[in-house]
Amino acid sequence: MFNLERWQEIFETIRKNKLRTFLTGLSVASGIFILVILLAIGQGMQNGISSEFENDAANRISVWANVTSEEYKGMNPGRRIQLDNQDYALAEAKNRDKLEYKSGVYSNWGVMTSYKGETGSYRVEGVRGDYQFLENESLVAGRYINQSDLEGYEKVTVLGNRVYQDLFKGKNAIGEYLTMAGVKFKIVGIYTDPGGEREETRMFIPLTTAQRVFNAGDKLRSLVFTLKPEENFEDAVAASEAFSQQLENDLKTRHTVAPTDERAINVNNSLENAKRFYDLMDMIRWFFWGVGICTIIAGVVGVSNIMLIIVKERTKEIGIRKAIGAQPLSIIGMILHESVFVTAIAGFIGLIFGLLLIEFVGPLIETNFISNPSVDFGVAVTTVIILVVAGAVAGFFPAYRASNIKPIVALRDE
Amino acid sequence: MLYFSIMIEIKDLHKSYRTGNNSLHVLKGINFTVSEGEMVSIMGSSGSGKSTLLNILGILDEADEGTYHLDGTEIKNLNERVAAKYRNKFLGFIFQSFNLINYKSALDNVAMPLYYQGVNRNVRTEKAMHYLEKVGLANWADHLPNELSGGQKQRVAIARALASDPKVLLADEPTGALDTKTSYEVMELIQGINDEGKTILVVTHEDDIAHMTKRIVNLQDGIILDDSEVKQVRAKDAMKKALAHV
Q1: Rounded distance, CA A25 to CA A306, Å?
Q2: Do A411 and B99 touch (CB under 8 A)?
C-alpha cells in the first residue's frame, strides 16, 4: 500500500487515462451524492413532522362537545351538549393523582382589540395557569395567568407574539392597557409558540374573567389535560387511551348521551395521533434507508461494471506486462489499488458536494414537512467506505481473472 | 565459430490443442539446441507450429510432453509467479505488432521490465535511456507510441526487450508489419545486438529475413524438416542491393 513505486505507477496511469478515471469517479461520486441528499431529505421530513407536534404538549387530551347524533332515553338527536365548570371539576377530582396539567377553556373568536389607534381582531381564550404548558408556550416577557388572577377575576392578558408585533410594533407592552370587547385589560406577559404565527395571534385571559366578560356563566368550550409522564412511550399511549375512554364515558353519562354516539362528546388524544405519526415516520425512515441501500447496490454494480470494462480494455496491456515479467499478484494489486484510490477520492468528493449542498441550500427549504435537512456525517462516511470496499471486492474478480489470462491469449487479442 | 554453452535445449517436445472434440497435434516431437551467441531463425508456413514453438520457448505456453532447459534451468510445471520471474530474468520479447503500452512514453515502455525487477526509478530511467540511445531513439524518449513510425515502435520494443538484460531474445515476425527498407533497418539492429553476443531466435516466414540469421530451422507440420547453418547476409548489404534495384 505504501510502496512509492506503485503509487507513482498508479498516478501515471490515472493521469494518462483521464476520461476513464473521470467516468469511474463520476458514477461513484453521483451515487454518494444522491445517497447523501436522500438521507438528508429523510432527516428533513422527520424534523418537519416532529416540529408539527411541537405546537402543543405532545400528550395533550382535549375534549369538545357538539350536538348529539342519536336518540337516547327519550331525547331527540340534534340536542346541543354544553360543557361547564362542573364537568371540569368532576374530571379533575376523579383523576387528581393522574393529571399533570389541566385547564378548562372558554374562548371567543374575532374579538375586536385596540391599543392607541392600532386595532385588530383576535381570538381570546379564557384559561387557567396550566394552559401555558398544555399549549407548549414560552414567555418572551412578563408572566402568565396565575391562580390569584382567576380568584380575583382580574382583567389581565397575555399576548401572543404576533399580536404584540401588530399592536405595539416592538414598544414596551408590559403594564400597558388595551381594550378588548370594550373592556380594558392590563398586559402582564407576551408568549411565543413553536406552532408559529397561527398560534401566536391569540390572547389569554383568566378563565373566570372570560366567563364573566363574555357573559358565559359557567360554560366551557373545552377541557384540556395532560397525564403525568410514564416510563415509556407504549405505557404513556395505553394510559392516555384509558383516561380518554373513561373521561368520555363519564361525560356521556352526565350529559345523558348514548354510549354509541360518536359526535356529541369529542375526545382528541394527541398521543394517539402522535403514535400514528411516529409509525409513519418510522416507515418513511425505512423507505429512505431502503432507497439508500438500493442506491449503494446500484453504485457497487456500477463500479464493478466499470472495473470489468477497464479490465477488458486493459487485457492486452496486462498481457504485455505479464510477458515482460509482471507477477499475477502485482496485476491484481495494480488494478485494485487504482480502483480503490479512484473510488475513495470520488466518493469523498460526492460526499463533500452533497454536504455542501445541504449546508447552503438546506436552510432555504422550509416547507411544512421538510425542515433543516441534514445528514449524519458518520453514516455518510460509512457508506463511502462500504462503497469503496464493495467496489474493491466486486473489482477483485475481474482483476483476478485478468491476472490469470495467459499472456499469449491477451497478446493475440487484437 | 566458438560456442560457449548451451542456452536452449528441447527434447521430444509435443503439443496439442483441444478444440471441442477435436485434438490438433501441433508439435510432434521437436529436438533442438541453441548455444549462447547463436542467431537462429525458425521458418515455416502458417500452421507449421512455429508460433507455438516460440510461445513454449518464451514460457508463455507449456508443452504437453518433452523437456525444455533454458540456460540450464528446467522449465516444467511452472506456476504463474515463477513463470513471470523466469520471463523477466531470461527472456526479451519482440512482437510483430510491437505490443507497446500506448499510454506510456517510449522511455517508460523501455523501463517497464526494470520496474518489475524492482529497480528503483532513477536507475530505471538511466538504463532505459541507455537502451533507447542504443536503438537510436534518444530524441524520441518522451513520445507516445502513436507518435512514432512502425520502425521506431519496433526499435522501442527492441530496447524494451534488451532493458532487462535477458539471456535470449525472442522475436516473433519482428518485420511482419514493416516495409522492406524498415525491415532491413530493424534486422541490422538485431544483427548488431547478436554481434555483441546475445542469443537471438527469430520466427519468420520471409526467406530474406531468415537468411540474415546464421542458422535456419525449417518447420513443417509440427516436425523439423531441416536444420542447417547458413551464410549470414548482412542487412546493410541487402539494403544496398535493394536500393540498387530501384
Answers
A1: 10
A2: yes
Q: What is the ipTM of this complex?
A: 0.85
Whether residue A350 sits in one domain with residue A262? no
pLDDT score of B130: 93
pLDDT, block means (10 residues), chain B with 246 residues = 74 87 87 91 85 86 89 85 87 89 90 89 92 91 92 92 90 87 90 91 90 92 89 86 76
Distance CA A334, CA B19 (A): 33
pLDDT for B200: 94
A179 and A318, same domain (yes or no): no
Interface of A with B (CB under 8 A): 5, 8-9, 12-13, 16-17, 316-317, 319-330, 403-404, 406-408, 411, 414
Chain B positions touching A413 (Cβ under 8 A) are none
Q: Domain count for chain B, please give it.
A: 1
**Residue numbers of the domain that contains B84:** 38-62+80-245
A281 with A14: CB under 8 angstroms?
no
How remote is the C-alpha of A66 from its chain's centroid? 33
Q: Are residues A94 and A239 in the same domain?
A: yes
Going by their DSSP bridges, the two strands A265-269 and A60-65 should be labelled as: antiparallel
Virtual torsion, Cα A117, A122, A126, A132, nearest 10 deg:
-100
Establish if B15 belongs to a structural domain. Answer: no
CATH number at residue B206: 3.40.50.300
Residue B130 lies in a domain: yes
Instruction: Determine the structural domain holding residue A12 and report its residue range.
Output: 4-52+277-412
pLDDT at residue A1 in the model: 46
Give the residue from A146, A140, A142, A111 showing the smallest Cα distance to A125: A111
**pLDDT less than 50: residues of chain A:** 1
At residue B24, the pLDDT reads: 86
Total structural domains within chain A:
2
- Among A239, A271, A303, give the residue marking a domain's end: A271
Q: CB of B117 within 8 Å of any CB in chain A?
A: yes
Tell me what pLDDT residue A55 has.
Answer: 66
pTM of the model: 0.65
